[in-house]
Write a structure and sequence with these properties.
Layout: H1 2-18, H2 21-48
Length: about 50
């Protein structure tokens, strides 16, 4: 999931440089959503992960 987030942010940067504003905005939004989801799942796995 983090890999897809990084992929979409790279797509957003390239699209922004080439002048595709709508595509860049959409890709950046998808990257933000995926990164937020990654952080949420990471936090849940830290709290509910291993129990000693």
């Amino acid at each position: 999931m983090l890999r897809y987030s990084l992929l979409f942010i790279i797509v957003a940067l390239i699209a922004g440089l080439l002048g595709f504003g709508v595509v860049a905005g959409t890709a950046a939004l998808i990257a933000k959503i995926l990164f937020g989801l990654f952080l949420l799942l990471f936090a849940i796995s830290l709290f509910l992960g291993r129990k000693a």
